[in-house]
Sequence to fold (140 residues):
Amino acid sequence: MSNITIYHNPKCGTSRNTLAMIRNSGAEPQVIEYLKTPPTREQLLALIAASGLSVREVMRSKETLFTELGLADPARTDAELIDAMLAHPILINRPLVVTPLGTRLCRPSELVLDLLPQPQQGAFSKEDGEAVIDAQGRRV
Fold:
């Protein structure tokens, strides 16, 4: 069983790059496609608390549904925002990664490097070609 979990959306480039960097460290994480298997209220609250972010910071504000539901309104409570994320998991920002070193929203994807217990095993470039790790496993 892996000690790394990623809440992943395979349609998201940042999420795919983050997953690839985890695997480049030699780890095979537990991959939770949160759109298919959304977190429970308790899991979502625990992820938010562990990340040190606010409920609003964990929301995907660029999602059309965010605007349509009026979630930018500062009068909306955290409980209302949580309810919206549970009803519409697409509103949960991604990727969220949990390791023994912490929990983080990995945007940009390189933020995952600070959470990985093992170093990178070789060169890594993002999908867009941006080099992140050199052949010796060091950040570029």
